[in-house]
Amino acid sequence: MPNSENINPTPRKRHPVTPKGLKWSLGTSLLIVIVLYILSVYQTTAFPNRVVDGFPIIFNFVVDDLWPPNWSYFDRVAMSLLETWNMALFSSTFAALIALPMSFLAASNINRNAYFYQFIRNFLNLLRTIPEIILAVLFVAVVGIGAVSGILALTVFSIGILAKLISETVEAVDPGPLEAIRASGGNVFQVISFGVMPQILPQYASYSLYVLEINVKASVVLGFVGAGGIGLILNQQLSLFNYDNVSTIIIVLFLTITIIDLISNRLRGRLE
C-alpha cells in the first residue's frame, strides 16, 4: 500500500513577511536604486549643476536666435510637410496590408505549426529591434536620398510593430466561433474570415491609426539621414545656421503633430 505521505505531500510552510523584514527589503532595494543613479550620474557626467547652468544658454538661444520665425519660409515648409505626410501615409498603409497576414502566422491559435510560428515571431522581433533610422541609412544607400528610402524604412519598422500588436489581439479573441467553424469543416481561411476578422477589425483600424501617428513623427527624424520629408530641410537649415527658418519649421511641426494626435486619438477612441 503506498504511503499516504507520498500521495498527499505536506505543503511547504510559508513564513509571513514581518514588518521588520519588509522594511529591510524596501530599504535594501532603495539603497540599490540610489547607488545605481549615482553611478549613472558619474558615468554620464549629468550633474545637476550642468543642467541648471544650461538653462540660461537655452533661453538666450531661443530669444536671440530662434525668435522671430521667418514666415516667408512657410511655403517651403508646407511642401516638405506634405512630403512627410505622404511618407507616413504610404508606409502605414503598406505596413497595415503586409502585417495583417503576418499577424495570423504569428498567432498560436491560427498557426498550429510550432516551428513556423516561432520563426515568424523571431522575425518580427528582428524587425522591431532595428531602429528606423538605421533602416533609413540602409535604404538611402540602396535607393538614394529621398522620400522612397524613408517610406521603405518606415514600412519595414511598422510591420514589426503592427504584426506584434495584431497577433496578440488575434490570440485574445473568443475561441468559440473559431472552434465552431473548425468543427463544421471550415478551413483556416474561413476561420480567419468569419471567426477572427469580425472580432479584431476595430483594434486593427485603431492600431493602424496609431502607427500612422508614430510614422509622422518618425519621418521627421529620418530626414536627417537623407530620407526625405521635412527633416531633410530642418537638417539643412540647422547646418546653415538659419535659425529663423528652423523656428518656422518647429512651430509648423508642433501644430501639425498636435492636430494629428487629436484627430487620431478621437478616431481611435470611437473605434475602441
From TrEMBL:
Q: Where are the transmembrane segments?
A: 21-42, 89-112, 133-163, 183-202, 214-234, 246-264
State the similarity comment.
Answer: Belongs to the binding-protein-dependent transport system permease family.
Q: Where in the cell is it found?
A: Cell membrane
Enumerate the spans annotated as ABC transmembrane type-1 domain: 81-264
Tell me what this protein is called: Phosphonate ABC transporter, permease protein PhnE
Report the Pfam families cross-referenced here.
BPD_transp_1
Q: Name one GO cellular component term.
A: plasma membrane
Taxonomically, the superkingdom here is: Bacteria
Keyword set for this entry? Cell membrane, Membrane, Transmembrane, Transmembrane helix, Transport
What terms describe the molecular function in GO for this protein?
ABC-type phosphonate transporter activity
Task: Quote the gene name from the UniProt entry.
Answer: phnE
Membrane topology, from the record: Multi-pass membrane protein
